[in-house]
Write a structure and sequence with these properties.
InterPro entries: BMERB, bMERB_dom. The chain is mostly helical and 178 residues long. Helix content is 62%, strand content 0%. It has helices at residues 20-69, 77-125, 128-138. The longest helix is centred in the N-terminal third of the chain and has 50 residues, at 20-69. The chain is rod-shaped and about 95 Å long.
């Protein structure tokens, strides 16, 4: 014989005051936190790469400055050759850093577009009560990130979403060939 249950015999694991909207809201918060953490991880990786590039550029520039300070007629052929090598290495690293800055700007625009699309989705698809709960998390201030152009490499590009500088000046030097 089929087993029958009275409606009140089946008890959900959810607290009696918990609604589906509450659960969906909580899941949305978790998804938002996950997205923020992924974005932050990406920012930190860019920071690491930038710090390493800046340190190397600064080291090479210091070495180059010492060679430039020598009177031209006193430089050995090896010193003149090293000077040329340093200029080329610095140029290559500055170019690499330019690509890094472009990547950061691309990520910034992609994230802004994702946020816009999510906001539109919430407005069109979700109930008003859920939208009110979710919008608090979706619209958690993600501050505008500012970037400098390549012509302004003396000041560093910033991502202020987290209130921290993403790309810092190269240890007091500008990122350009002297």
């Amino acid at each position: 014989a089929p087993v029958s249950f009275a409606e009140d015999e089946i008890v959900s694991m959810a607290d009696s005051t918990t609604t589906i909207d509450d659960i969906e809201g909580e899941l949305f918060k978790i998804e938002r936190i996950r997205e923020i953490l992924v974005r932050r991880e990406s920012e930190l990786r860019y920071m690491m790469d930038d710090i390493q590039l800046c340190k190397e550029i600064s080291r090479l520039k210091k070495e180059l400055q010492k060679l430039i300070a020598l009177p031209e007629n006193e430089k050995s052929n090896e010193e003149k050759q090293r000077e040329e090598e340093l200029v080329q290495q610095i140029h290559k690293l500055v170019e690499t850093r330019d690509f890094l800055v472009d990547d950061v700007e691309f990520e910034r625009l992609r994230e802004r577009e994702e946020d816009r699309e999510m906001a539109e989705f919430l407005q069109s698809k979700l109930s008003k009560s859920y939208l009110q709960k979710a919008s608090k998390w979706l619209m958690t201030p993600v501050k505008e990130k500012k970037m400098t152009s390549r012509g302004q490499q003396t000041s560093a590009p910033y991502m202020t979403k987290t209130g921290l500088t993403l790309l810092k000046e190269c240890c007091g030097f500008t990122c350009s060939i002297m």
